[in-house]
Amino acid sequence: MQNISNAEVSAPRRGRRFGVMVIGPVVGLVVGLGIVVTGCATPPGVLAPGRAAGSTGQAGHGSIALRNLGNTATCDPLDTRHCLLPFPSNTFTVEDRSTGTGRRINFARSALPTNAGGVQVDPAEWNRNDGFSPGQAISVFIPGVDLAASKLNDVTNIEASLRSDAGVVLLDATTGQRWPYWAELDSSVSDANDQVLYVRPARNYPDGHRMVVGFRNLIDVHGAMIPANDVFRAYRDRLHTNVEAVERQRNRYERVLNELGSAGVARDSSLFIGWDFTVASTRNLSERMLHIRDVAFAQLGSGAPAFTVDLVEDNPDVEIVRRVTGTFDVPLFLDQNGVSGSRFLYGSNGLPVQTGTYKASYICNIPHAALIAPGRAGVYGHGLLGSNDEVSAGNVRAMSEEHNFVFCATKWIGLSDEDVGNAIATLSDMSNMVTEADRLQQGMLNTIVLARLVKSPAGLVTNAAFQTSSGTPVIATGAVYYDGNSQGGVMGGGVTAVSAEWTRAVLGVSGMNYSTLLQRSVDWNTYRAVYDPSYPNVIERGIGLSLLQMLWDRGEANGYANHITGNPLPGTPRHKVLMEIGIGDFQVSNWAALVEARTIGARLGCPATIPRRFAGVDPMWGVPCMDPTRDNERGSAIVFWDSGTPAPPLGNVAPSSGVDSHEDPRADAKNRAQKSHFLGADGAGAGNVDGSTGTIVDVCNAQPCTANSVG
Q1: Cβ contacts of 387 within 8 Å, gap of 6 or more
Q2: What is the pTM of this model?
Q3: Could you tell me which residues are beta bridge partners of residue 103?
Q4: Which residues have C-beta within 8 Å of that of residue 57, sequence separation ≥ 6?
Q5: Based on the number of CB atoms within 10 Å of its own CB, is 311 exposed (0-12), middle (13-18) or buried (19 or more)?
Q6: What is the CA radius of gyration of the chain?
Q7: How deeply is 176 buried, as exposed, middle or buried, from its count of CB atoms within 10 A (0-12, 13-18, 19+)?
Q8: CA–CA distance from 45 to each of 41, 91, 96, 111, 580 (Å)?
Q9: Each residue's pLDDT tens digit, 541-568
Q10: Whole-angstrom Cα distance, residue 28 to residue 32?
């Protein structure tokens, strides 16, 4: 927490006195947070001194005295409320020509959140990143801001974020294009003195791009314009300061101000704050996962992994003729034999090294229909901190029997039932997040290897447990499909982006970006009972979720979303996905689902809802309706299912009205039929007994899709 006080202007321009400005009594907060105040030094990420090409790059004739900037070596003086605000910012990066962006994160430990035990987050793993999350929320503290008066749009009016008078201009500086967003005050905090303003991208930023953000014409609750603090005013008004660290960043801010000017943002007293940040590169986001995938499949070649059959159960459920349980071998890249809490070991090339072999578990259900004709091979993804036995849930069994799928599942290690203790440890000390991120990537690898095992002629079908009494395989080899729900939908987007084993995936009740999802989920009520006491400073709780996302990107859809359907990752085919969403879902926010749909280019099943089902201006902005004559060819869509649950709240809080719709879409037979049509034969394999061809079929007769509530 920086201590900026008694800043005053000298040599005022045009003889007008600007007055004295006291910026916050923050000394007590510094002591309370236990953040060490260091001596004056150059902050990380500054540009070299000197004039920027095409601009003055220098202060004007006026000057401003900034006193007591004691910790500019680790903090950003643009926002006095916390050391890391505004966030994200290139203040916290340094030049590094070896990375994909040419920059690298450079957090100091003293700048990061402190838990109740006095332990500050260890920045080591974050400092491997070459930029911030492609879904990173922008966080800044603006005391007393009135969102409506300041023309800061909510999540239902995203089009307004691109207007010429928008209160925030978010700019992709790499392309010069405006970027859509929504703004919200932290609704999880009751005290206005602790409410951070979040600006969330309405679709993910492009990997590796540099973004510029500017806030202007901000009005407080009393109707007065909110003035800039003196540090930003020094840059904006070209006022010389007495602080070398501030001066050394002047070229950077001159560039930012010029770019904002080109976007129509006036460089005058209406401009409250502006800065830039760099989005992590594709290489940085995906290279660990792609590396362990490529090493593993180089060992497999065209074959299948070794496996065991440990238990065969006949007629365990009415829809299932046989359930088979066993293990399969996967190259392991974690220490401690891959147990919960383990992490990658890195080689000299900076990539994970193989440490052994992991025995992953599987459960497969064979429907009666597969005894008549081989069933389609399917991999199923389970929910939050659950287990692969979810493949035996009633809706999955029904999908198997109705549409002849043999679904197999393994655990999403990293966020399975085995990982509850480690999740609690991470909520208590965010430094532990790397163990979740690394184990999630191993879990993604396990899932892809399972897909090979299920679809390969050299895999499961070589065992009698996966054959009829006459020796005919019960699985149609050659093609495999993915179907996941809840966390299986969130993780499913990520694993689909890196899978060369399937090209079609259903993401049920899905979304992405846990930093957006968590506070909007009723599940968070349980986990915040650990998180909130562990991080008693409410500002740091929000910052903490943003920090966690920077590592979580390695193991969930948010880090891979720009490559799920288009611009495929190296060694990976293009994919098509169908998102099936329950209106008002209590656990996975509809708003996060729409961000994912915009990012991957999914089109909307229309009519999506009955009129005025959602409040606001245009909740579905940026997700155009499908053209049935064209989009069946293009193939990715989002379909909303209505079971009567109220639409989700606009803020970052969980729904609390009505009955949770989370289970409803998958429980509906029409939904399962739509999924089956979409998961077509795709040019490989057999067993597609209902004649589906890989298209998106309107199963709701040109009406909004409805489902019965099972809550």
Answers
A1: 411, 416, 417
A2: 0.90
A3: 95
A4: 50, 51, 250, 251, 254
A5: exposed
A6: 27
A7: exposed
A8: 12, 5, 10, 14, 42
A9: 999 999 999 999 999 999 999 999 999 9
A10: 6
